[in-house]
Specification:
With 209 residues, the chain is an alpha/beta fold. The chain contains eight helices and seven strands, in the order H-H-H-E-H-E-H-E-H-E-H-E-H-E-E.
């Protein structure tokens, strides 16, 4: 059987990212000192803000999430924050990215911080991949194509446990691009939603009833 660890290792070797000693797990303090390099000009892509990352980490710890799904890895910045929360709870993250360059960069960062053992980084279209992944999930973070947020939500909702949390990024900064999603989470009796602003871009937090 091909395991997720095998897939991650092959991805790193293909990208020339494996190096001796790279698997040493950094402390939380070391990782937080490492994270700013992912936000330097030319590398930021569409990553979340530091305060938003800390919010996600703390939310995962609050709900005791063990199985987490991230839709839109980018270069791994948000995934590292999520993994920091999961490392405390003993959980695992599956993260999906459609772009190979961003995927490979993210894998290198997961390896460098020593978080790779708890991160299953998959390359592919989330709309095609999510149906293949078995639930239940305790935590989901959506940060990919804004026009597809409602489709992502509809795919993950049946895979959520009661008390689990579905979060989504850019709900303030890109609200016009996801009006259907925002209306759905506001009116859906299956969840209770609030909008929080630990950063400027806004995060929706939908707790599954």
């Amino acid at each position: 059987m091909i395991t997720w660890r095998w897939r991650v290792a092959v991805g790193m070797l293909a990208a020339g990212l494996a190096s001796p000693g790279a698997d040493r797990a950094m402390t939380d303090t070391e990782i937080e000192a490492y994270l700013p390099r992912l936000l330097t000009p030319g590398n930021r892509y569409w990553n979340i803000e530091p305060a938003e990352g800390a919010f996600l980490r703390d939310l995962i710890r609050e709900v005791g999430a063990k199985r987490a799904l991230e839709i839109g890895t980018s270069t791994g910045y948000s995934g590292i924050w999520i993994a920091l929360g999961l490392r405390r709870t003993g959980g695992q993250l599956i993260t999906l990215e459609i772009d190979r360059g961003r995927h490979d960069t993210a894998v290198s960062h997961f390896r460098a911080t020593g978080l790779a053992p708890i991160v299953d980084a998959r390359l592919g279209d989330a709309l095609a991949e999510i149906p293949k992944i078995e639930g239940p999930f305790d935590f989901v973070f959506i940060d990919a194509n804004k026009q597809d947020y409602l489709r992502y939500y509809e795919l993950v909702l049946p895979k959520m446990r009661k008390g689990g949390v579905i979060t989504a990024h850019n709900v303030k900064s890109h609200s016009d691009s996801m009006a259907d999603f925002l209306e759905r989470i506001r009116t859906d009796p299956a969840v209770k939603t609030e909008i929080v602003t630990p950063g400027r871009q806004g995060i929706s937090v939908s707790r599954v009833r």
